[in-house]
Amino acid sequence: MSDLIAIAYPDLATAQDVASNAAALTKSKELELEDLVVVEHRPDGKIKLHQPSTAAAGAAGGALWGGLIGLIFLAPLFGMAIGAAAGAAGGSMADYGVDDNFMKDMGEKLEPGGAAVVALVRKVTVDKVLPNLKHQGVVIQTSLDQEREDLLKEALANAPR
Description:
Number of domains: 2
Order of helices and strands: EHEEHHHEHEH
Largest sheet: 5 strands, antiparallel
Distance between the termini: 32 Å
Oligomer: single chain
Shape: globular
């Protein structure tokens, strides 16, 4: 089961840096995410969701399968092109994870100019991730148990400014 974690930051640049750090931690297998979104409350009052694109992953998978199927019919390049196009279209339409309406409602509660990182965390190596937090933030919502939420709040409070 995944845990929802939403942390507010003073500006979009900080939230995007946190999201980039989370992406790096997924590559090193210290963090496994189901979804990661940066919610921005623009100074004009509009709420913008910055979600990573799933089109690229869909295109890569589609090209692979299209190429393999194309080999059967002796047209691998044509198969790869068709597969990549179909995979990109399917990937761009896929929407999973945290509900967009929930995140927009959360964004309304942020200060104008502020941003939040909303993550659906499947697995985390707590002792390696928490000591390496690079920005202070405020926990605005989690589904963690009280002990783990307190650890997160303490790590965020002790992070560099």
